[in-house]
């Protein structure tokens, strides 16, 4: 990656992260499995939230935390985390 494309990618990421409509979500691995989604959590998350970022697995809770712009058709196993 050259400097110009790296700068453009970083600028895009900064715009996404600072957007006011960004929310944090919890992906419930048990709920996804029960709904028939057996692929890796990041693949399933990308189906419903293509612009998701900041993926963080939380193994003790069997979930993933991620950030994304608002998800319109959110399944039951993706829960929006209230902002405080």
General description of the model:
- This protein has one domain (22-81).
- The chain is 36% helix and 29% strand.
- The chain has helices at 3-18, 29-34, 41-48; strands spanning 22-28, 53-58, 63-69, 78-81.
- Strands 2-3-1-4 form a four-stranded antiparallel β-sheet.
- It is elongated and about 45 Å long.
* Beta strands, count: 4
Distance between the termini: 38 Å
Low-confidence stretches: none
Q: What average pLDDT do the residues reach?
A: 87
Name the overall outline.
Answer: elongated
* Largest sheet report: 4 strands, antiparallel
Order of helices and strands: HEHHEEE
Name the helicity range.
25-40%
Sheet with the most strands: spatial strand order = 2-3-1-4
Category from helices, strands and their pairing: alpha+beta
| Rg over CA atoms | 14 Å
Number of helices: 3
Measured by DSSP, the beta-strand proportion falls in 25-35%
Number of domains: 1
Task: Give a topology summary.
Elements: H1 3-18, E1 22-28, H2 29-34, H3 41-48, E2 53-58, E3 63-69, E4 78-81
Antiparallel strand pairs: 1-3, 1-4, 2-3
What's the short story on this structure?
Helix content is 36%, strand content 29%. It is an alpha+beta fold and 84 residues long. It has one domain.
Keywords:
single chain, 84 residues, alpha+beta, 4-stranded antiparallel β-sheet, 4 strands, elongated
